[in-house]
Design a protein that fits this description.
This protein is α/β, with parallel strands linked by helices and about 220 residues long. The protein has helices spanning about 40, 45-70, 90-105, 125-140, 170-180, 195-200, and strands spanning about 5-10, 15, 25-30, 75-80, 80-90, 110-115, 115, 150-155, 160-165, 185-195. It folds into 2 domains: about 5-45 and about 120-210, no CATH class; about 50-115, Histidine-containing Protein, Chain: A, CATH 3.30.1340. The longest helix is centred in the N-terminal third of the chain and has 22 residues, at about 45-70. The protein is globular.
Length: about 220
């Protein structure tokens, strides 16, 4: 796998709705390109990276199906070339095989393997997860101090995963919102943490912004 030149922090946090549990930070090599223009307010990735993420998801999904067929249920989500694997596989060997397949896909920098070793989820479970994801997205949109499109949300078996390039303040605030959303049993954050100064550089001038500006940095307390 290729790695970026600037080290960023990827935080994986498992928490109940009370936000009582924390695990250590997990380092990963993430991209450090500075982006500008109105596009940043909605995504914070370059247009090239967005296309690469789409390609990663398509190629990885196709290769997994070719190698493992219908005996696995795997979702591939790529954000800033970091790949989150969720779903179910029948064995630990299959879990590792999926990761190796994805690692060989072009442009993948890092993999967070959250596959469960168990039987495939039911259609009812997947429908429930989709509804939960919809509720989470709506709750973030309703927030007055977050850029909703800076986050990518995935829910699997009641666990909601959040990806994106955000500040500590945004990460903390989004976690609070997600954990309080109906249907969410656990929150896992797979985030690239940036500074408030870096966020300010990414944002377009005030007269070009179509999204609400974030509130003043409130700090971050685990």
């Amino acid at each position: 796998m290729k790695t970026g030149l600037i080290q960023r922090t990827v935080l994986i946090l498992a928490a109940a709705s009370a936000l009582g549990a924390c695990v250590p930070l997990v380092p990963a090599m993430m991209g450090g390109a500075v982006v500008g223009g109105a596009m940043v307010a909605s995504d914070r990735r370059t247009s090239g990276t967005v296309v690469e993420d789409q390609g990663i998801e398509f190629k990885a999904g196709a290769r997994i199906r070719d190698n493992l067929g219908e005996r696995v249920h795997v979702n591939v989500t790529s954000y800033n070339r970091q790949v989150l694997l969720t779903g179910e596989v029948p064995s630990e060997q299959d879990k590792q095989l999926v990761e190796r397949i994805v690692a060989n896909v072009e442009n993948v920098r890092n993999i967070v393997n959250e596959l469960g070793v168990m039987g495939n989820s039911t259609l009812a479970q997947r429908s429930s997860d989709s509804l939960t994801t919809g509720r989470v997205k709506a709750a973030i949109v309703d927030a007055q101090d977050l850029f909703a499109n800076a986050f990518k949300i995935v829910t699997e078996r009641g666990t909601t995963y959040v990806m994106g390039r955000v500040t500590q303040r945004e990460a903390k605030r989004a976690t609070e919102i997600i954990a309080a959303t109906s249907g969410v049993q656990r929150v896992v954050r797979v985030l690239e943490i940036i500074s408030e100064d870096e966020l300010a550089r990414l944002l377009p001038p005030p007269n070009a912004q179509n999204n609400r500006a974030p509130a003043k940095d409130e700090g971050y307390t685990k």
